[in-house]
Design goal:
Layout: H1 2-22, H2 32-50, H3 55-78, H4 84-109, H5 119-132, H6 136-142, H7 153-165, H8 173-185, H9 189-203, H10 209-222, H11 229-241, H12 246-258, H13 262-273, H14 280-295, H15 310-317, H16 321-342, H17 346-359, H18 362-375, H19 380-393
């Protein structure tokens, strides 16, 4: 049915363009000059019959009038209408050109064989995907086995003893923490996630954000990167406890990105991508946000991250802690000077706020946050990016 409709539409367009060429043109009226010259020839004949004009003079007059009559006749033929065969050839060429261009364009940007995808149906389908996705156990079972980690035999023996002893001590927080850590080092993410779940349960209401983040990290790794319903609950818990949680924001964005809502994923990821955060989760968001934006129909180019080059990083490895701290402070000061004199995008302001937070210079972060709010007043997207940075730096209540 789709191709029938396309063909009918193409034929309709071609017919519309061909109609003027196929329509017979009006009969061309005789050139007025031709009528005048023919009348003059007849007048010469009558003058000869009446004896007004001599025969020799009449011949010269006829020759001149005939010459002019021939010139006008040639001009009329050159400016006449095109023959019917030429019009038909134009119709055929234009029709074939339209069909070829239309087919090539659809092949390049269309989706042959795909059914209609209205927005309401896609939103409903995305909701069904989220509601019916497999649970953590099913995802762990379907995940490919982790690659074997090359570890010393003595270390493996110690971990085997730890696996035997820790379950016999269900309330040993330190034991379960060690088991979760070493299982993750060996790539046994499912076992590490179960041990970390016990760590979180033992802490109860006093559980730390780091332990919750470690738990969701291990669950997602065990599920081969898929966000299960159980992992979603922990990610939302992270966001409720700390709205600036980069991990919580990343995993919720990943959930929507995996279930047909890249537009929602983009809204979750953009603030952390442009905040200047250098965490593992922010890097994951940077690696996926442009693709999510493209699938959501959003034109977005990942902002360039300005920071120390490879030479600077190599030099920093050989520095003492004091020298390294001084180098970082110098880079932050350069960024602050540039923003103060030249200005810059919200992502640069957010990076400066985050950097001051990492350096422990809360007053400076507060000052930059206040100035940035004034600079980007009315820009809701920029303010969201800046708020994320301010929360990360601890200067936003």
């Amino acid at each position: 049915m789709f191709w029938i409709i396309c063909i009918m539409m193409a034929l309709g367009v071609i017919s519309f363009l061909a109609a003027p060429l196929l329509r017979p043109g009006p009969e061309a009226a005789e050139n007025p000059q031709l009528v005048i010259y023919k009348g003059q020839l007849e007048e010469v004949d009558r003058d000869v019959e009446r004896g007004i004009l001599k025969q020799s003079e009449a011949e010269r007059a006829r020759a001149e009038i005939s010459r002019r009559l021939l010139a006008v006749s040639r001009t009329t033929q050159l400016t006449g209408t095109a023959p019917a065969w030429a019009n038909r050839l134009v119709i055929i060429v234009v029709g074939l050109l339209l069909l070829v261009l239309g087919g090539a364009t659809y092949e390049a940007i269309g989706a042959p064989g795909e059914p209609d995808q209205p927005l309401a149906a896609r939103l409903a389908q995305a909701e069904v995907m989220r509601e019916t996705r497999p649970d953590q156990a099913a995802l762990e079972e379907a995940a490919p086995p982790s690659p074997q980690v090359d570890a010393p035999a003595e270390y493996l023996e110690q971990i085997a003893q730890l696996r035997t002893v820790v379950p016999t001590r269900p309330d040993d927080l330190q034991g379960w923490t060690l088991l979760a850590f070493h299982e993750s080092r060996l790539g046994n993410y499912a076992a590490a996630a179960r041990a970390q779940d016990r760590v979180v349960s033992l802490q109860g209401d006093n559980v730390t954000l780091d332990d919750l983040q470690r738990q969701v990290d291990l669950m997602v790794a065990a599920a081969n990167g898929v966000i299960s319903p159980e992992a979603e609950i922990i990610a939302r818990d992270l966001m409720q406890r700390d709205e600036a949680s980069i991990a919580g924001r990343y995993y919720l964005g990943a959930l929507y990105n995996q279930t047909g809502r890249p537009d929602v994923a983009f809204r979750f990821w953009r603030p952390i991508v442009e905040s200047g955060d250098a965490s593992f989760h922010a890097d994951l968001a940077r690696a996926q946000i442009e693709d999510a934006a493209a699938r959501a129909g959003i034109e977005y180019v990942l902002p360039e991250i300005r920071g120390p080059g490879e030479a600077d990083m190599a030099a920093a490895q050989d520095m003492s802690d004091e020298d390294r701290q001084a180098m970082i402070g110098n880079m932050v000061n350069q960024l602050a000077d540039r923003l103060g004199t030249q200005g810059g995008p919200a992502s640069d302001w957010a990076r400066l706020i985050t950097a001051y937070g990492v350096l422990g210079e809360t007053d400076a972060a507060q000052t930059v946050w206040a100035e940035a709010k004034t600079t980007f007043v009315g820009d809701s997207v920029a303010l969201q990016v800046l708020e994320t940075a301010a929360k990360s730096a601890g200067v936003l209540e």
